[in-house]
Amino acid sequence: MDVVAELARCATTADRYRLQIEAENELSPAEIDALHARAAGLPDASRDWVDKLAAMCRRIRDPIQPFRRRALAPEVSFFEGSAPPGAPRALVVAFAGVAKRMMLPLGPFLQGLPADRCDVLVLRDPDRLAFLAGLPGYAADLPALAARIATDLPMARYSGAACIGASSGGAAALAFGPLIGAGVAVSLGGLHPRGMPLRHAATPIDRYVFDALRAGTPKAATRLVCAHGEDFLRDCVRSRLLAMTVPGSEVLVVRGVALHGVVAGLFQRNALARFLEEVLLDGTLPADGAWQP
Amino acid sequence: MDHQPSPPPHHAARLRDLVATGVRANPVVTVNDPALLARLADPAADCSFEELGFDSLARMELCIWMQVEAGFEVTEGELLDHPSVGALATHLALRG
């Protein structure tokens, strides 16, 4: 998407915000950086927006992580990292929340991951049904998603996999991790689908489909982590209830975070990159169940 | 001339209060201006998201808050098409 050209064509404030939101949900850190380099030609309001996005990326990590975006489907984006051929790299599968983002614009979230250690697959449910009905037009359910990924991605290159889901994507991440043999699957402020305020679907939605899936999946070594911000009470309750329904899962308290979905709170504490590397890529969880930013 | 049906007043007022709560809970934009805060608290007044300083990041946070905390799905399109606290509340009341 040529954001500069499209911003120039926006006739109304609402058009501009629509475009900005779309860009926030799609652009990689490098694309944001490139856009920032052209910001002088943008109207003031959009220049402020690009400045803010670029500053968010730089605050998380320097240099900009060179993920290259490739759309596999309208709501399925693959971000290829920079690991040289033959070097170990992980596949990170990210399940976005209700606003189709990981509680931050996508670029800053990706900037929290080292591009030389992983590729990232970002999934957004356009029907906002928390992936209970799979990904419309791509995979009918999570087992079909696992099969589809095995076809679309070069799985042989990966030395490991990890899943992460924010908010309403959290439960899907926990269900999907064992399906692809992930080392760790992390729910960030997630909740059981039974408790989610989902839109009315055209066909009945089984809110217990992930429970049935887990029951029918051979036991895997995946560590299942229900993380929540220490000071966000609703996430605390929801995450602990979710953990009670996911056998073998563990609760991870993120100290000093008071925002829903953990990610934005980690950003505020300048700890997003360290959290993602330690917990998601290294699978290193604190013995006492509390992660300190 | 088309007339939209009016939502029940108590329902619209409750929703307006809910949207205002979501505005005050926004993690991206903190409203500090006493005049704006007074208008947010006044059921008879309205505030546009623009004058509240809501950029696209703050608007998406409000969408998330409305769904996750308040149980109302608000798409980004709805938020942009109803660009004030009162307009969004009225829209939600009419939408049901």
Describe this structure in words.
The complex is a heterodimer of chains A (293) and B (96). By secondary structure, chain A is α/β, with parallel strands linked by helices. Chain A folds into two domains: 64 residues, no CATH class; 226 residues, Alpha/Beta hydrolase fold, catalytic domain (Rossmann fold, 3-Layer(aba) Sandwich). Helices cover 37% and strands 18% of the residues of chain A. Chain A is built from eleven helices and nine strands. In chain A, α3 packs across α4. Chain A starts with a helix and ends with a strand. The mean pLDDT of chain A is 94. The mean pLDDT of chain B is 88. The two termini of chain B are 23 Å apart. Chains A and B meet through α2 and α4 of A and α3 and α4 of B.
CATH homologous superfamily descriptor of the largest domain in chain A: Alpha/Beta hydrolase fold, catalytic domain
**Outline of chain A:** globular
Overall CATH class of the largest domain in chain A: Alpha Beta
The termini of chain A sit apart by 35 Å
Q: What's the helix-strand series of chain B?
A: HHHHH
Query: Largest sheet of chain B, described in full?
Result: none
Number of strands of chain A: 9
Task: Domain count of chain A, please report it.
Answer: 2
Shape of chain B: globular
CATH top level class name of chain B:
Mainly Alpha
Q: Quote the distance from N terminus to C terminus of chain B.
A: 23 Å
- Largest sheet, spatial ordering of strands of chain A: 1-2-4-3-5-6-7-8-9
